[in-house]
Amino acid sequence: MARKAEDEHRADGVTPELDELSSTLMGDAFDLLAAGKDVDVLLVVGDAASNVASYAFSDDGMEECLAGAHAKVRELRRDGGDPEVGLGEPVRYAITYEGAVADESGAYQDAVLLEFGEKGYKAYSAYSYVKGRGEGDGFAWTEPAPAGEVEPLL
Question: Buried b / exposed e across 96-126, counting CB within 10 Å, b at 16+?
């Protein structure tokens, strides 16, 4: 119940640190797609000292991998970080993965989806349509569009 009350008092917006973390992760996903590679469910987590740890989830279906990424953020929160990789208590995270999003006509288009959040702030999702997978410089993406709030993990 305390978690629910905490969620009601979260701040709106995105800090510059979270914007940089999530933008870098999206860029990494675009680079993989441009090279014709699959984008696993990718997670990056940052602490207050700007240490960052990266994790990839690919041994299961998309839903299970996404659930695994969510569970990893909660685990890192509970454990106060990941000392093996130099990560202190997590304060921000971003998760990205491949999917499809309906466009204005209702047709589904390939997209990279992003979830991101920061301790004390609301968590959000966004997407970018993509095309030209494996075409190197011919690969294209749209500017990220907001997809709404998601459950905060920190």
Answer: bbbeeeeeeeeeeebbbbbbbbbeebbbbbb
Residues of the chain with pLDDT under 70: 1-8
Q: 39: number of CA atoms within 13 Å, CB side?
A: 27
CB neighbour burial string for 26-46, b if at least 16 within 10 angstroms, e if fewer: beebbebbbeeeebbbbbbbb
Could you give the CA distance from residue 9 to residue 126 in angstroms, rounded to a whole number? 22
Note whether 45 and 90 are within 8 A (CB). Answer: yes
The residue written with tokens 């890192």 in the block is 76
pTM: 0.91
* C-alpha span between 93 and 75 (Å, rounded): 13
Q: What is the model's pLDDT at position 123? A: 97
